[in-house]
Design goal:
heterotrimer, A mainly alpha, B mainly alpha, C mainly alpha, A: Four Helix Bundle (Hemerythrin (Met), subunit A), 0% strand
Chain lengths: 165, 352, 126
């Protein structure tokens, strides 16, 4: 249990660093470390496949995309847009609204009994596959359509050639 | 986990770490010797007998060189780049089984740092992290050549990672487990039930795809576009000097060692060899695993040699050829391999 | 035969990471201390084959690399989805072609996407 609190502390610490670092590339690096601590959380819950998926997809794929986007942007100091005070006020107001909603949601939450897993090995790859391909087969197949539409969308956005058509 | 086991694992980690660094260091000498042999030269031969101490001299030189951090770079990220590259190269070897369990008196020692349920995916994940060191290092240099090299490297690594993942799936369909220890145990011996036990004989196309992808992941010729010297000076490490340059180069050799070990483990039977049961009876549980380790290292050294052999045989690709090969040849082939394997296994299980 | 591992099996990986981290930090600090330091303005300027440096390297680059990165993320998720299937395939194949067909449906949609990408010439480098 102490280990959980230690890792949770690290997660929050690094996610705060993500927000407070000035350089966006530092933010990405800290976000990678934050995702790593999430992987540790999953392992502590014995959800090994989820841990490694988090490792590969979030740390290895999505963060690479983030870095690409940062490098695609012009990161010179002089081109950095000046944030107007109106935007800052809007940010504070919307942030406080979110906080209020969260506090309200937490207050109305009643503490439930700690969930006891019927099968502690559910997070292992083999068991997960069995569940995925029996009970959740339809959502799994539908998710492929989601991926397909994402592919089409990204190609449409990035590929614009006026010479054709 | 009791204390004795922790100490045992710690010693194993340190030994494997030292061995992989040693192998990587001597790979540099081997590379120069092989290059010299293929080009009809002598190669390094002054430092020690036959150039034996050349890696030590090179390493020492790297340590005492001046480190240059360019004025316009981002110093923190500039140091982070090579550090990350070396770090990710060094943690990949944790799940590779180096031999059968060894018996010292009452104590059985597993010659594997850890046997986790998702071993292959761990290696896959570490490989996908390898791109950060190059990308951050190249970007932090604030040099156009470095930036181009870094972006090329990143695009190349991520493109070939997909084909690598797909080629592994066909292997997993045959083996049915992600644990590397189980995969090696399934390849026990050499011949069983009228067919070879090693996976390369059931998955020849998968192995071919995997080896091409691991060449690309290690940024070795013919896929060394990120550091092609006639276009980009030295690619992502143009601005680096001293040990930081050494870290990038060293990471490449450590990666080569680890990927050779993975190839030997997944496809070429790992520490298994023909007649291993006979040797096991002859030598007993203490000494027989050592033969297995020697066999595994022989396979690893063969693959490292193969890496170098290819380097001096095949010229570099053009960038569009590289991307076409990755996306339009390897991925369809890998998918076809998965479907063929699926049909074959299903027919075999149901009709034969 | 099947190994059931728990969280404790991941402890040695933490060891390995600590050893690697220690090695990297040690060598980086050590070489920083023992190397000579003779700096000059020219030495610290970016190397561009001896020509005067124009601007810096913080410039946008071709969107094609970006497209490759997006497609990589999508295909990576596809590959990840296939791992639980591949591990269970041996057991599913004993009951006929169902296991294979389930995956072919999933892969078919993605192959459609792949064909679309190729037809759109999104991955062509001219």
């Amino acid at each position: 249990m102490n280990l959980f609190y230690f890792v949770a502390f690290l997660s929050i610490f690094f996610s705060l660093l993500v927000i407070f670092s000035k350089n966006p590339v530092y933010s990405v690096l800290f976000l990678i470390v934050t995702f790593f601590t999430f992987s540790v959380h999953y392992i502590l819950l014995n959800a090994q496949f989820l841990a490694i998926v988090n490792f590969i997809v979030y740390m290895g794929a999505i963060m690479v995309l983030f870095l690409f986007v940062l490098m695609l942007l012009n990161l010179n100091k002089d081109t950095e847009p000046m944030k107007s005070s109106l935007l800052k006020i809007a940010g504070v107001v919307s942030g406080l609204c979110l906080l209020l909603t969260l506090v309200g949601a937490v207050k109305s939450l009643n503490v439930s009994e700690p969930l006891i897993l019927k099968d502690p090995g559910i997070g292992l790859v083999k068991n997960l596959g069995k569940v995925l391909f029996n009970e959740f087969l339809l959502p799994f197949e539908v998710s492929s359509i989601l991926l397909f539409s994402a592919m089409v969308g990204s190609v449409l956005l990035a590929k614009k050639d006026p010479k054709k058509i | 986990m009791e204390l004795a086991l922790i100490i045992e694992k710690f010693i194993l980690v340190v030994v494997i770490f030292a061995v992989s660094l040693g192998v990587a260091a001597y790979s540099t000498l081997a590379e120069r010797k092989i290059a010299a042999f293929l080009q009809g030269r002598v190669g390094p031969h002054r430092a020690g007998p036959g150039g034996m101490f050349q890696p030590l001299a090179d390493g020492g030189k790297m340590f005492f060189k001046e480190e240059i951090i360019p004025a316009e770079s981002n110093p923190f990220l500039f140091i982070m780049g090579p550090s990350l590259a070396l770090l990710t190269a060094c943690i990949g070897s944790a799940v590779i089984p180096w031999g059968q369990s060894m018996q010292f008196g009452d104590r059985v020692v597993e010659l594997q740092v850890t046997d986790i349920n998702v071993g292959i995916l761990y290696i896959f994940g570490v490989v996908s992290l390898g791109v950060y060191g190059i990308m951050i290092g190249g970007w932090a240099s604030n040099n156009k050549f470095s930036l181009m090299g870094a972006i090329r490297a990143a695009s190349q690594n991520i493109s070939y990672e997909i084909a690598m993942g797909l080629s592994l799936i066909a292997l997993l369909m045959v083996s049915g487990t992600l644990s590397l220890k189980d995969i090696v145990e399934q390849q026990h011996g050499f011949w069983n039930n009228g067919w070879f036990t090693w996976n390369v004989f059931t998955q020849p196309l998968g192995f071919l795809l995997f080896i091409v992808c691991s060449f690309a992941e290690c940024n070795r010729t013919p896929f060394d576009l990120p550091e092609s010297e006639n276009e980009l000076v030295a690619g992502y490490h143009t601005e680096y000097s001293g040990f930081k340059l050494g870290a990038f180069l060293f990471a490449e050799y450590v990666n080569m060692f680890v990927s050779s070990a993975v190839m030997a483990t997944l496809y070429w039977g790992g520490y298994n060899y023909p007649g291993m049961d006979y040797v096991f009876e002859l030598l007993g549980p203490t000494w027989a695993p050592i033969v297995g380790i020697a066999v595994l290292f022989a396979k690893i050294f063969f693959f490292i040699f193969f890496f170098m052999w290819i380097r001096w045989t095949i010229p570099r690709f053009r960038y569009d050829q590289l991307m076409n090969l990755g996306w339009k040849v390897l991925i369809p082939l890998a998918i076809a391999n998965i479907i063929l394997t699926g049909i074959w296994i299903t027919i075999k299980d149901n009709l034969l | 035969m099947e190994t059931q591992t728990s969280a404790i099996n991941y402890l040695p990986i933490v060891f390995q990471m600590l050893v690697a981290l220690g090695f990297v930090v040690l060598t980086m600090v050590l070489t920083h201390i023992i190397g000579p330091k003779r700096k000059s303005k020219e030495k610290l300027s970016p190397f561009e084959s001896g020509i005067e440096v124009v601007g810096n390297a913080r410039q946008p680059f071709s969107i094609k690399y970006f497209l490759v990165a997006i497609l990589f993320v999508l295909f990576d998720i596809e590959v990840i989805f296939m791992y639980p299937w591949a591990v269970n395939f041996r057991e599913m194949s004993l009951e006929g072609f169902d296991g294979l067909i389930e995956m072919l449906v999933f892969m078919g949609t993605l192959l459609l996407g792949f064909i679309y990408i190729i037809k759109k010439k999104a991955l062509d480098w001219e």
